[in-house]
Amino acid sequence: MKMTRIIVLVVSSLFFSSCATLNEKGKKVRLTHTESEVKNCLRIQEVSTLPPYILPSDWKIKVRNAAGAVEADTVLTDSFPLSPKVKGQAYKCED
Asked: Residue 59 belongs to what domain range?
């Protein structure tokens, strides 16, 4: 019984430590699927992420972090979390 608890604790710790975390720059990035929202923005570059996506929101966190790393504030994406590679176009919309 005690060994089972230890195993559950170790597995849970590994699971939650591997989840994606939104960094400070990524917190300033928003996702959109609508092209009209970026029509007046400066396109910076394509950003992408690869699995693993432990939680359903991990792909969003990873793509927002990638966009923040290139100083973007918006990502236009048509990707879905079931795609092996999530990608989008990073834009700078605010001054």
From this structure: 21-92
